[in-house]
């Protein structure tokens, strides 16, 4: 299996998925080839969204750098799922849901993840986070920086360990997103919404869609494993929520392995 090149520049964005797009299959394993924006400092004034046409309208950042320590099976990106690996499945889901490109952020055992996954696909770029062990925030910054290099209108942030996320969920988020705002997920099955927040906190979950002008400040504010949480709380008036019927729980421990065996999300 040929590992994808790191930091390559000759990749092209994907098109949008048609309403009748077939079921998602991992990159390089039969997925159809035809298918369906950050800067600034935090805290501070939220930048004005750009008015020029984006080069790549929607770019997703797929956070896949963790070591999977709690699960104890190595990087979760390599877990087998639906005939491929979890990172292949998540990448294909984002593309099929309407993202034009995906930046995959690797960290723990990055070479093994590359060797064990087919990610050398049009619209997919793989980048390394050498500081992955410091927490998700560093991966978010690396991924957002790469995504902004494509001059997008909006940036989707997704986790590799949410096998319950389907193309329809991604498409629902993108359809609901408004310029200059953030669109967050709320999962109605499996208790994911409750897991993502305390009783007195907003129930925001991934995937998220951020206007490109907000993604940079959100990434800059991230600390440890909190991701964009502090930014969202500070700018709650900019956050819209979309309900999903499925189970968007993270696959964190052995008790969550049933997520790999559930029905294929649409």
From TrEMBL:
Keywords: Transferase
Ranges of biased composition (kind: Basic and acidic residues): 7-21
UniProt key word Transferase: yes
InterPro entries: MobA-like_NTP_Trfase, Nucleotide-diphossugar_trans
UniProt keyword Transferase present: yes
GO molecular function, one term: nucleotidyltransferase activity
Superkingdom as given in the UniProt entry: Bacteria
Region (Disordered) residue spans: 1-55
Residues of the MobA-like NTP transferase domain: 60-237
Database matches in PANTHER family: MOLYBDENUM COFACTOR CYTIDYLYLTRANSFERASE (PTHR43777:SF1)
Protein name (database record): Nucleotidyltransferase family protein
Originating species: Cellulosimicrobium funkei
Lineage of producing organism: Bacteria, Bacillati, Actinomycetota, Actinomycetes, Micrococcales
């Amino acid at each position: 299996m040929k590992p994808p090149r790191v930091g390559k520049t000759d990749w092209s964005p994907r098109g949008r998925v048609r309403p009748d797009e077939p079921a998602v299959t991992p990159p390089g394993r039969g997925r159809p080839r035809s298918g369906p924006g950050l800067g600034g400092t935090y805290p501070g004034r939220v930048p004005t969204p750009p008015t020029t046409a984006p080069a790549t309208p929607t770019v997703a950042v797929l956070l896949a750098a963790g070591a999977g320590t709690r699960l104890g099976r190595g990087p979760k990106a390599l877990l087998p799922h639906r005939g491929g690996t979890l990172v292949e499945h998540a990448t294909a889901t984002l593309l099929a849901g309407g993202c034009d490109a995906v930046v995959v952020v690797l960290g723990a055992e990055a070479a093994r993840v590359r060797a064990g996954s087919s990610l050398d696909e049009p619209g997919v770029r793989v980048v390394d986070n050498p500081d992955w062990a410091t927490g998700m925030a560093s991966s978010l910054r690396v991924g957002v920086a790469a995504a902004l290099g494509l001059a997008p209108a909006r940036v989707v942030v997704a986790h590799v360990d949410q096998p319950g996320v389907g193309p329809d969920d991604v498409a629902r988020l993108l359809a609901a997103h408004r310029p200059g705002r953030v669109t967050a997920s709320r999962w109605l099955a499996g208790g994911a919404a409750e897991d993502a927040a305390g009783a007195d906190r907003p129930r925001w979950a991934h995937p998220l869609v951020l206007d490109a002008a907000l993604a940079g400040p959100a990434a800059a504010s991230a600390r440890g494993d909190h991701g964009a949480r502090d930014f969202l709380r500070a700018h709650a008036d900019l956050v819209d929520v979309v309900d999903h019927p499925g189970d968007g729980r993270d696959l964190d421990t052995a008790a969550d392995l049933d997520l790999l065996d559930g029905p294929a999300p649409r």
